[in-house]
Amino acid sequence: MTERQELIQIFSTFPDKGVLGNFPVWVEDSQLKKSIEYYLNQLPSLPTPEECASQIFVQWQQTPESLVLQKHLTAYLGRVCYDAVQSFANKYHSYGVSQEDYFQDCQTRIGNILNKFKPEIGFLKSYAYTKFVGFFKDYVRKKCDPKAFRTDLWLLNCKTMRSTKKALEEYGLYPEEIPKYILVREYFNKLAAPTHKNGYGSLQGEADPVWERIARAYNQEKPGDFPRYNEQDIFKIIQTIIDAIVYRYFNNKVTAPEAERKERELINEEFSEELEELYGVIVEVFREIKGYN
């Protein structure tokens, strides 16, 4: 594979299920491939992945509504996330946690990494890698100490639905995802809270039957365009809501993620004149940095 082909892959592919196995699989997005090829064709020389990410990031900051630029950066950070998760390869068994689950947990945090990164501090790759590695301690704490999760459940009693919505917005969830999380919390309030008036110390973590009851009630009453959730999904959504509340109202060191998604969205934007104009700006910035003008 040439350097150019590798660069195209980095900015146009996403991890598939089983990516952490012996033969990693990355799924190509044809629209992203087409756009990054167009961008590279405009440059007088091939940039490094870090240079390419920096220029795309700068342009995304100026046009945050561009899904194309956002998806290029998400694809790029998927590789960084993969490397960070692999760095703990010899620790998962000893801690009794799942490498695949940790990888998925890190993937949900990409959105906030993009929102918090400042180009003047260095390369996006270095910043993101440090963040992904730093998440490991918090992940292990939650998985290995069920009391930590049970104790945090009281936060759901002290914040209203309106406060929860604001917390999820600031935490990085997409607007269309938030109503689904709010509905799950409503069923949690109906089915879990009344039986735990004095706290949630008796909840048995992810194995508690309450999550299955919530999933069944949610799936029966949800709007038709909402996804179905199983008990594991419900448990993870409640965890995300708690983290969002802590992040917004209690200034903890929880790092906000992008919305959890079962599958990566594929870009459906047309390759338009507007997109060409965006890359034209990036090219000019790159030329100035390299001294081609």
Automatic annotation (TrEMBL):
One of its GO terms (molecular function) is DNA-binding transcription factor activity. It comes from the Bacteria. GO terms for biological process: DNA-templated transcription initiation. InterPro entries: RNA_pol_sigma_r2 (IPR013325). SUPFAM superfamilies: Sigma2 domain of RNA polymerase sigma factors. This is Uncharacterized protein.
